[in-house]
Amino acid sequence: MPDSRKSVCEQRIFEEVFNTYSKTIRNFIYYKCGDTAQAEDLTQDAFVKLWNNCTKVPFDKVKSYLYTLANNAFLNEVAHKKVVLKHQKSVTSIATHESPEFIYREKEFKGELERAIANLTEKQRQVFLLNRIENKKYKEIAEMLNISVKAVEKRMHGALVSLRSEIEHFKK
Q1: Among 89, 127, 161, 167, which residue's beta carbon has the most beta carbons within 10 A?
Q2: Is pLDDT of 127 > 70?
Q3: At what angle do helices 122-132 and 149-171 cross, to 10 degrees?
Q4: What total of structural domains would you count in the chain?
Q5: What integer pLDDT is reported at residue 171 of this predicted model?
């Protein structure tokens, strides 16, 4: 990482900041909305705003500034509509040795799991996906969301309880 005394306004420094944080910012927003295009747009907007305000942002605050910008942009976009997580369907053309019944049950289970994740509260879903998909530690998630580690633990516990309940209900 560059020296904290250097300016984010220097193109080389800005490019390094972009290369370091753009993917995690995009994933952060994607886990909130479930829409790749929206996540990419909001990430791009956050970096444009960073560039436009680069003289006002100290280098050591760049990461939290980007997360705040992206989160606020997301909240502004969804202020008047309900957020529903939509998973992209992927078609696999790989031959498998599994029975048609197994493939059907697996597909059915994946659908139930996606619905169970979509039924989590936004806060639970966000923490669950950041931890389980992005492999972020609770402390990192707490920093990203500007909440305590205890709040992250509580949200994760709620998510796991809810998912277990829905999956057990599905099995019956």
Answers
A1: 127
A2: yes
A3: 90
A4: 2
A5: 60
Note whether 72 and 105 are same-domain residues.
no
Answer yes or no: is pLDDT of 92 > 70.
no
Whether the model clears a pTM of 0.90, i.e. scores above it, the answer is: no
- The H-assigned helical ranges of 10-148 are 11-33, 36-52, 62-77, 100-118, 122-132, 138-145
Q: Residue 70 sits in a domain of what CATH number?
A: 1.10.1740
User: Could you report the per-residue pLDDT of 17-39, keeping only the tens digit for each?
Assistant: 899 999 999 998 888 887 888 89
* 16 and 63, same domain (yes or no): yes
One domain for residues 107 and 150: yes
Cα separations (Å) of 74 from 10, 98, 113?
27, 41, 25
The tokens describing 155, both together, are 């949200």
The answer to whether residue 134 is domain-embedded is yes
**What's the CA gap between 151 and 128, in Å, rounded?**
12
Total number of residues shown for the chain: 172
Say if residue 111 is in the same domain as residue 54: no
> Which tokens go with 25?
């910012």
Q: Which has the higher per-residue pLDDT, 162 or 86?
A: 162
Q: ∠89-95-99 over CA atoms, to 5°?
A: 90
Please indicate, yes or no, if residue 3 is contained in any of the structural domains: no
Confidence band for 125, pLDDT divided at 50, 70 and 90? confident
